[in-house]
Give the backbone structure.
Amino acid sequence: MSNVSPSSHDVQYWSRLSDGANTIYIGLAVLVALATFLVYYFGSKAQGAKDNELKQVQAISAQKQASSATEIAQLHLQAAELNADAAKAKEGMAVAHAQIAQAKKAAADASREGQYALLTAEEAKLKQEQLKQENIQLSTRLNEAITEAQTTKLSLMEAQQKLTLAQLSQHHSLENVKQQQKPRIITPEQQKILTTYFTANPKGFVCIACVLGDNEALSYASQLDNILKTAGWNTAGVTQVNFSSNPVGLIVNLEPTNDAASVLPSANALVHGLSLAKLKFRPIDLVGIPGMTMATNMPSDQRLQLIVGVKPTTTK
């Protein structure tokens, strides 16, 4: 154990401790100064780097801002164009909506009209069927009417034919009556033909006879007698004869005789002359006229007879 007192020991201890503390303080102060310098130095370096970096960042930022401004301007322009397009699209949509509304209205109208058309078509179909049935009935009635009209037409035609025939018959009857009532005459032209021919051809004796009591036949026979006499023929005039059966029309007759050949030339001339004048007569009959009484003093070779019978009931 030491002889130093606790108080001096403590002073030494604290003195050494204070020296150590000073030393440590000085060291720490140096370290702090060094650290401060280093901090300042590196701080200045770092600040410069930061400033440069800041400037670069600011330059890049400015470029980016300029580029961004340009892009923003372009975007604004595009936005404006898009807004304009949107406005147009909006207008188009409004028009489209209006057209859609009109289309819907038109569709509704068309639907109503379609429904009405369906109803009308059904009614028209029913009406058409009714008209078809009516047309069938009308066609049947028309055919019946046509058949009836044809039958009536045929009946009318038959009646018309009968009426026409009756009228023709009546007309012919009237004409026949008129012709029958009208006396036979020899026209001037016929007289000229007969006179010329009879004068230039063989002549002979002709016995002219007519029906007793028939004034028309007597007049006709007298005309023939005058023509023959004018042409140089011999006649005994007109003899009226009472026939058992009255002859009809004009007859040229040659009775059989012992010398008939001598009479034939004048007989042929008489027949040809009457034919040229277109006077209707019966051809020469060699058997004579039954019931005819001739003059007994007539020469046997003078048997040429011209007989005027009653007027025919039919003419032409």
